[in-house]
Specification:
The structure is a single chain. The chain has about 150 residues and is mainly α. The protein has 7 helices and 2 strands, in the order αβαααααβα. It has one domain. About 65% of the residues lie in helices and about 5% in strands.
């Protein structure tokens, strides 16, 4: 099983992402795209090149984030508390909108897969990987930048 997954990944990672299939009929549960998804597809190669050229960026940002948490916590220990009720309400509203958009995107396809095939197929199906040589699916291209 592990070798099959690795074989699928190597097939997946060697795909040519310059010809992206925008035929949504491959995904019966997905009937539209958000505008930002079209933008991401249009500029996918730019994103991929950026990620390839900056391999240490995620590690660096994580390190800065962790250090800033420690430093701000130590600094705030002796400071009066801030009144953050409104910013926290706005932050939670943005998170709620993000979650709703994610649900709108994922749930129709998940429902279609579970009702037409099975729960196993919804998590283990490799139909997003097995495409022709010069054609790739949008889901592949969105989540495989490197």
């Amino acid at each position: 099983m592990q070798q099959r997954l690795l074989a699928n990944f190597s097939t997946f990672s060697s795909k040519d992402f310059t010809h992206i299939n925008r035929n949504w009929s491959h995904y019966p549960g997905l009937q539209f795209t958000f505008q930002f998804e079209e933008y991401l597809v249009d500029y996918l190669e730019v994103f991929r090149n950026y990620v390839r050229n900056h391999p240490l960026l995620p590690l660096s940002l994580t390190l800065v984030y962790c250090l800033s948490i420690v430093r701000v916590k130590a600094w705030m220990q002796y400071q009066p508390p801030y009144k953050l009720r409104v910013p926290l309400i706005l932050w939670n509203a943005v998170l709620a909108i993000f979650s709703i958009m994610g649900s709108i995107r994922v749930l129709p396809e998940l429902y279609w897969m579970i009702t037409r095939q099975s729960f196993f197929a919804s998590t283990c199906d490799d139909r997003f990987i097995d495409v022709s040589e010069n054609e790739t699916t949008t889901n592949q291209s969105m989540f495989q930048f490197q």
